[in-house]
């Protein structure tokens, strides 16, 4: 509600009787007077009237529902900038925005829980967990422009210590995806001690974010950088563990003992709807907004929080797949599992997966990387 000031020949006029003092409105809205003053200063919840003579704030009782919504959104931890966006929406759109926010919170909480479990396990044992030199990986990667796109904005990389897939979008998407992966390659030039893996992943993720911002700023016109960016899903190999960096809706899968597991969580609108039960996996497969991302590396930095970080123990016989949604959005999980289980090596698997996407129409660029964990 717009703030109004009342003047009367240099003397303040008493506000209309229907308006409430800040103290009375605080009790009605369940917000403290201090919070109301702060939200006024931030432009989040302006009073209906400010007396120019004494600066007293007065509120309209009709503002109470909005104020109460602000109070509840603060209670669930929503940042003020996001609350400002939510209260400007109609009820349906506001509900969808809150749903998406909470799904993001739950996903990030799950990622932090996994990291906490890893740290507890690492710090509570005296054994050296790393078995550098006992395991290795065989790997392959490939991309395809698909049947519809005019340019390929996907990028994939596979090496002895790094697997990565990135799916660029916007005018600077191709440069963004390439920059994200190139920023991780220095990590792969030497052995990463298992105890330092989390720190290395964190530093690498920050470097990738900076590289994407620089690449997008240098490749697109004025005003466009915010509309360009990339997803990034990458694994760093230590010799006994794989460190995972993930943001966006590219995916990582693990084939273990013949069963396929998805080990990343999409940062997308449809995934948030699946998480809260308003959409099924089958419905998400053809949802018109299935490509809308909640988090990505972009021209102005990551949307939302930064990438998810995780550490996974490797076993001989494990087969990992990293892929863009150009594959996962058109090929069913059962078909992915069948190809991964039957291919005689990573190169064969990559070729067959790209062919599967082509057979499904390949409406988008496709990128994938496959790695086998082997005993040396």
Q: Outline of this structure?
A:
This protein has twelve helices and 16 strands. It has 376 residues and is an alpha+beta fold.
What would the keywords be for this entry?
single chain, alpha+beta, 376 residues, 21% strand, 7-stranded antiparallel beta sheet
Provide structural commentary:
With 376 residues, the protein is of the alpha+beta class. The chain is 39% helix and 21% strand. It has twelve helices and 16 strands. The protein has helices spanning 22-29, 33-41, 64-75, 80-87, 91-123, 173-184, 197-219, 269-275, 281-285, 325-328, 333-342, 346-359, and strands at 4-5, 20-21, 49-50, 57-59, 135-144, 154-158, 162-169, 229-230, 232-237, 241-247, 251-256, 259-262, 297-298, 308-313, 319-323, 366-375. Strands 6, 7, 8, 9, 10, 13 and 14 form a seven-stranded antiparallel sheet that branches. The protein has a five-stranded antiparallel sheet with strand order 5-16-15-11-12. Strand 6 (154-158) and strand 7 (162-169) form a beta hairpin. Helix 5 (91-123) crosses helix 8. It is elongated, with a radius of gyration of 25 Å. Residues 1-13 and 125-133 have low confidence and may be disordered.
Counting helices, strands and paired strands, the structural category is alpha+beta
Sketch the topology as an H/E string, one letter per element.
Answer: EEHHEEHHHEEEHHEEEEEHHEEEHHHE
- Tell me the β content: 15-25%
Gap from first CA to last CA: 68 Å
Largest sheet composition? 7 strands, antiparallel
Q: What is the overall silhouette?
A: elongated
């Amino acid at each position: 509600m717009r703030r109004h000031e009342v003047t009367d020949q240099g003397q303040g006029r008493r506000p209309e009787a229907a308006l409430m003092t800040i103290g009375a409105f605080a009790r009605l809205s369940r917000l403290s007077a201090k919070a109301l003053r702060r939200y006024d200063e931030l432009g989040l919840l302006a009073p209906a009237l400010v007396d120019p003579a004494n600066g007293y704030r007065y509120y309209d009782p009709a503002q109470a529902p909005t104020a109460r919504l602000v109070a509840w959104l603060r209670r669930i931890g929503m940042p003020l900038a996001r609350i400002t966006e939510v209260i400007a929406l109609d009820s349906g759109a506001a509900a969808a925005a809150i749903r998406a926010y909470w799904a993001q919170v739950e996903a990030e909480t799950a990622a932090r829980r996994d990291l906490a479990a890893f740290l507890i396990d690492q710090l509570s044992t005296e054994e050296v967990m790393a078995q550098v030199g006992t395991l290795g990986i065989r790997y392959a990667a490939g991309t395809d422009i698909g049947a519809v796109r005019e340019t390929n904005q996907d990028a994939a990389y596979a090496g002895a210590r790094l697997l990565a897939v990135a799916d660029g979008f916007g005018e600077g998407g191709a440069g963004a995806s390439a920059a994200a992966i190139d920023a991780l390659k220095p990590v792969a030039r030497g052995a990463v001690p298992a105890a330092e893996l989390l720190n290395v992943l964190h530093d690498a993720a920050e470097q990738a974010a900076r590289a994407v911002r620089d690449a997008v700023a240098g490749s697109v016109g004025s005003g466009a950088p915010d509309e360009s960016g990339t997803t990034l899903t990458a694994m760093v190999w230590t010799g006994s563990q794989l460190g995972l960096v993930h943001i966006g809706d590219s995916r990582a899968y693990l084939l273990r003992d013949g069963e396929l597991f998805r080990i990343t969580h999409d940062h997308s609108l449809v995934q948030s709807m699946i998480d809260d039960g308003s959409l099924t996996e089958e419905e998400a497969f053809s949802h018109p907004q299935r490509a809308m991302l909640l988090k990505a590396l972009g021209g102005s930095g990551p949307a939302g929080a930064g990438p998810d970080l995780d550490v996974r123990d490797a076993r001989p016989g494990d087969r990992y797949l990293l892929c863009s949604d150009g594959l996962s959005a058109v090929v069913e999980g059962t078909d992915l599992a069948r190809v991964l289980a039957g291919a005689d090596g990573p190169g064969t698997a990559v070729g067959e997966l790209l062919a599967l996407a082509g057979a499904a129409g390949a409406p988008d660029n496709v990128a994938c990387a496959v790695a086998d964990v082997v005993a040396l």
